[in-house]
Amino acid sequence: MKLSQVLTQMQATPKLRDHVTAWKVTPRSEGTFADFPVSVDPRLVSVLRERGIERLFTHQREAIEAVLQGENVVVVTPTASGKTLCYNVPILNSLLENSESRAMYLFPTKALSQDQLDELHGLITDLGVDIKTYTYDGDTPVNARKAIRAAGHVVITNPDMLHTGILPHHTKWVKLFENLQYVVIDEVHQYRGVFGSHLANVIRRLKRICQWYGADPTFVLCSATIANPDELARRLIEEDVRLIDTDGSPKGEKHFVFYNPPVVNKELGIRRSSVHEARSMARNFLLNDVQTIVFARRRKTVEVLLSYLQEDLKGTRRGRKQVRGYRGGYLPQERREIEKGLREGKVRGVVATNALELGIDIGALDACVITGYPGTITSTWQQAGRAGRRADVSCAVLVASSSPLDQYIVTHPEYFFAQPPEHALVNPDNLLILLSHIKCAAFELPFQEGEPYGGQSIDQILQFLEEQGILHKAGDTYHWSADAYPAGEISLRTAARDNFVIIDTSGSEPRVIGEVDSFSAPTTVHEDAIYIHQGEQYQIDTLDWEGKKAYATHVDVDYYTQASLAVEVRVIDEFQAERIQRCDKAHGEVLLSALATIYKKIKLWTHENIGWGDVRLPEQEMQTTAYWLSFPEELTATFKASDVESGLVGLSNVLANVAPLFLMCDPGDVGVKAEVRSPHTKKATIFIYDRVPAGIGFAEKLYRVHGQLLHAAEQLIGDCGCPTGCPSCVGPEDEIGTRGKRNALRLLEEARKDN
Amino acid sequence: MVEDLRQQLERLVSGRLGTTHLQRPERVRSRPIEELVGGEVREASHGTCVVVDQIYPAGYQQGQVEISSALSHRSQTVAGIGRDPGLEALELQKSAFLDVETTGLAGGAGTYAFLVGIGWFDGQDFRLRQVFMRDYGEEPALVSALEETLEPLSGVVSFNGKAFDVPLLETRFIMSRRRFPLSSAPHLDLLHMARRLWSLRLENCRLSSLETEILGLERHGDVPSHLVPQLYFDYLRHGRAEPLEGVFYHNAQDILSLAALTALSCTVYEDPLSHETTCGEDLYSLGRLYSLAGLGDRAEIALRAALDAPIPEELRWQTVHHLSFHLKRQGMWPEAIELWQLAIEENHGRLYPFLELAKYYEHRAKDFQTAEALVLRAMELVQASAASRGTWWTERRLGELEHRLRRVQLKRARHGDGES
Predict the structure, then answer these.
(1) Judging by beta carbons within 10 Å of its beta carbon (0-12, 13-18, 19+), is residue A606 exposed, middle or buried?
(2) In chain B, whose CA is at the least distance from the CA of A572?
(3) How is domain A3-25+251-418 classified at the CATH fold level?
(4) How many angstroms separate the CA atoms of A104 and A110, rounded?
(5) What is the H or E stretch that residue A211 is in?
(6) A-B Cβ pairs (cutoff 8 Å, strict)
(7) Whether A443 and B19 lie within 8 Å, measured CB to CB
């Protein structure tokens, strides 16, 4: 059956239709075209024409012309709008004109670099010219590196490699840096938070090196739709950028369906599981041979959904293997094989985490099922964009979970469709990150006294590093003066540098089946944890904490495990504080200690709790930033002590869930902690902390939107139909008591009264 | 505001980076480094640096080796020990014996060479120049002093210099906006040579091990390499110069040993039996080197000498193996057969002598009966070792042997036993 027929059928099914809160149809659009600019080499034009590209989309033309004139641009267009031509055309054109010219492409992952290499190779082969294009990353063989450094016209790499492998060794790349004309940064929306703040500093270092060699490259950036692409681009490269955001590509008809699963327990406000509902949506598509991608928020959900769907398709013509899983932790060759299968149509369905949100080429699919609101508007559009062909009908279904944020979005679809997507926040001057990169920069080139870095004087920091014995001042110049390689000690991605590997010991030879970062290790690979890989279950037998290895054996059980974290927050420094109406808001630096305490065994199909065990692993510490609001004594004095507690816990649950509305972050990127009497404020306090080390600006942003945040929380609790609290608002009754909902609401009302 | 940033930095550093807060460095009173090491401050267009010049006259011995004997060897010898025909262009008379002392081993633009030693032959004399920067600001002067010293030289001899010293100097030159003049010059890296020649005998091929074991040299007052960066940092921060004396000594000794090792290895290579090369390991290594260089006669001499010398059992059989193939290639069949038979009689478990003999009897002697018997024995041997070698290996070998067996049997049936 064709997708359009499946959709008609869905609309005619009452038990489905009744729970649809929005069904938006975007009609087919024709696209707007323009000719190639006359300055583009005719050889290049004819190669593109042979590939069926007769004319450009208007946004491509605008970008190509601007880049050829040396203007920095940021191109913002959806998936499959031909953005790679926006940089490949001007860059190949310049290389045809001047073979001394050089370009560098930065992609956030090695997989994307590989895709790009294939595409460029294709064009260059057709052109029949000698333009050397290479990927340069951790996988590049050592004996090939020398040739690449000397002769590569286009070097495709990632920020991590630029940071640890290229910039510190810039003297081996003289040819590149002397002639660097273009720097392409794709998937710019990925560079937010910690990663983006690091990247901005890597770019500062890159520009510093270029300047030393006398080059002044033009930057071409591409981004998915976010609220502030030009601002983000400007913060990343610290130069003026021209924004190009009018999409000229044609689009097929597109359906976007919001689905809220039916309530199964009115008192508790419990809805049917989004996982089960997503499963039946996806099953319906797949049984009708509609190629489908299913997104889930957590890797665990991916694996559970994958086993459900494979079960459902057992015995069909294409069998269970027509559906595959895809998430971080899978090995690269496994991923490549799945991507290829999707492009060729052999793989009919894939269950993925946001690992597939990136521009990895899997072709366009017909349908997309999103299990639970992905946390940001940007992410939702990105995931939905995976379904969408230029000519045919496509469809995306968002299946809401019972979580407050999901309920807010699914019951206020107008908020989603009218709201511009989130702002991507970066903080390149986060002191920890800044300090790290100043060290790297000093290693690369000595600093002159008074030399600005990131547009500001850093003399104080240089002096500090000299006192630490890391730099040495000779005359007016600070030199790196330590037996160390600073870039090797700084990871751009996480605070935790070293990943844990999971080793399957069931076979005749031990084999690595995946990896997890060390901050999540205590909750995912503790002893007796069930680790799921490609639908297969493994039980962790021993965890070698020092050696960062988890040894597992293959098992077949009907449960998964979930560990709880006990968190403690200590305030180190209060940056700003203010009384707003009747409560106090503040933000500052905090020290977080997290200890995995117990794990629960949860039955696969029913989600019952069927047992538990202790986790005994070292506490993890992290310095970060937090926003907190506290209720003065005169306000809480009107409450019974137990009411303060249940109100606080209830309110903190709601706040944790609405905060991401104002931050471009995944729901797990902030944490919340309620304290009846905080040692720091001496008052009842709720902390919302940044889960990334040293903080990335979430705390300050929440401080600024404090009023809106409390308003959204009040709206959510007030609009929820449950009598005494449910997981969709303040949390279930057994966690917060029968008066929790009322207390949370009262706290809010009191706090928001004007004095 | 100033104090604020300070506090934040200190908190970050103490909390997260694990470094302790350091007091402002105190300068100690010390004699100037140039006096301590007998050098002078040289003024150049790019500033000042310290230069130490020494001459080691003709006849100077490093350990038991007279270093100027390096000059008496043919260029093919150097190419032979270096396993690189390009080294025929290396003139030892015009080469820089090079060693650098650095602020670290990591490499990259932030690793400095604070002391660079260059040795070269001036007639039969050996001259040694050490260039030192008293602070990072003297690097441009150090670079130009090096440039001037290297100007008349056209080759490089080093120990691990291909991977370390030369790339590092290239970087230092670029950082001073100059070009290292010997980047594409012929370069003999003695680390690779030493590994080929002596690794079977020595526990490791570090320069210090080579000095004690090969050159018969004891160092006094030396500084262990891993302490070198810290001694320099201490000098920069506190002005403590005395401990650096040991670094200068260390550097000078390294360079003298480069010359001595070059001389010794050339001598050994040119005549394997001349020197006290009496141990089987060295003779075997030499034999391998000769045969890779296509010097069959010398390979044979060395390998035969290895069999007569004290040699570990396992290496003895490797020597037999290589020697027998060498003899086979030379068409010296009786000698080769003798070794294969010896290997069969004395050394159970190796397959090659059966195969080689089988081939010989099948193709040369046309004695198909003996050939068949040998193939059958080889098959027994393969089956016997199946458990330890694994199925893949066993099946492959058996397949080959069966094929050979069928062919031999066919020939035997066609021609009768043996050709007469």
Answers:
(1) exposed
(2) B11
(3) Rossmann fold (3.40.50)
(4) 14
(5) helix A193-213
(6) 95
(7) no
Looking only at the bridges linking them, the beta strands covering A530-533 and A536-544 are antiparallel
Is it true that domain A33-244 has CATH number 1.10.460.10? no
**Which pLDDT band, with edges at 50, 70 and 90, does A288 fall under?**
very high
Please judge whether B15 and A623 are an interchain contact, meaning their C-beta atoms are less than 8 angstroms apart.
Answer: yes
CB B194 within 8 A of CB B200: no
Q: What region, left, alpha or beta, does residue A394 occupy, with left being phi > 0 and alpha being psi -120 to 50 degrees?
A: beta
Is residue A19 within 8 A of residue A257, CB to CB? The reply is no
pLDDT at B67: 93
**What is the ipTM score, two decimals?**
0.85
Amino acid at B193: M
Secondary structure of chain A: what % helix, strand, coil (to 5)? 40, 25, 35
Mutation site, A146, A167, A466, A468, interface B, largest B CB count within 10 A = A468
**Size of chain A, expressed as the number of residues it contains:** 755
Structure tokens at B397: 């070998």
Contact call for B12 and A443, based on CB within 8 A = no
Residue type, A111: A
Residue in the block written with tokens 């366009």: A364
A3-25+251-418 shares its CATH topology with A33-244: yes
Q: Which residues of B touch A168 (CB under 8 A)?
A: 108-110
| CA pair distance B202, B195, nearest whole angstrom | 9
Q: How far is B99 from chain A (nearest CA, A)?
A: 18
A628's CB contacts (< 8 A; 6+ apart) are A571, A585, A586, A587, A678, A681, A685, A686, A687, A688
Interface test with A, best of B1, B2, B19, B175 (most A CBs within 10 A): B175
- Output helix, strand, coil percentages for chain B, rounded to the nearest 5: 60, 10, 30
The tens place of each residue's pLDDT in chain B, 420 residues long, gives 345 778 777 766 654 433 344 455 567 778 899 999 999 999 877 899 999 999 999 999 998 899 999 998 888 899 988 889 899 999 999 999 999 999 999 899 999 999 999 999 999 999 999 999 999 999 999 999 999 999 999 999 999 999 999 999 999 999 999 999 999 999 999 999 888 888 888 888 888 888 888 888 888 777 888 899 999 999 999 999 999 999 999 999 999 999 999 998 898 888 877 666 678 888 888 888 888 888 888 888 888 888 888 888 888 888 888 899 888 888 889 999 998 988 888 876 788 999 999 999 999 888 999 999 999 999 988 888 888 877 888 888 899 999 999 999 999 888 865 444
Looking up tokens 């010049």 gives B53
Burial of A444 (0-12, 13-18, 19+ CB in 10 A): buried
Three-state secondary structure along A586-643? EEEEEEEEEEEEEEEEEECCCCCEEEEEECCCCCEEEEEEEEEEEECHHHHCCCCHHH
Contacts of A132 (CB under 8 A, 6+ apart): A151, A152, A153, A154
Please report, to the nearest 10 degrees, the dihedral formed by the alpha carbons of residues A738, A739, A742, A747 taken in order.
-140
Separation of alpha carbons A474 and A472, rounded Å = 6
Could you state, in order of their start, the residue ranges of all structural domains in chain A?
Answer: 3-25+251-418, 33-244, 431-489, 500-557, 568-593+618-751
Judge contact between A691 and A624, C-beta under 8 A: yes
Interchain CB contact of B136 with A (< 8 Å): yes
Least Cα separation, residue B212 to chain A (angstroms): 29
- Residues A662 and A708 sit within 8 Å (Cβ to Cβ): yes
Q: Model-level pTM?
A: 0.82
Q: How many CB atoms lie within 10 A of CB B407?
A: 15
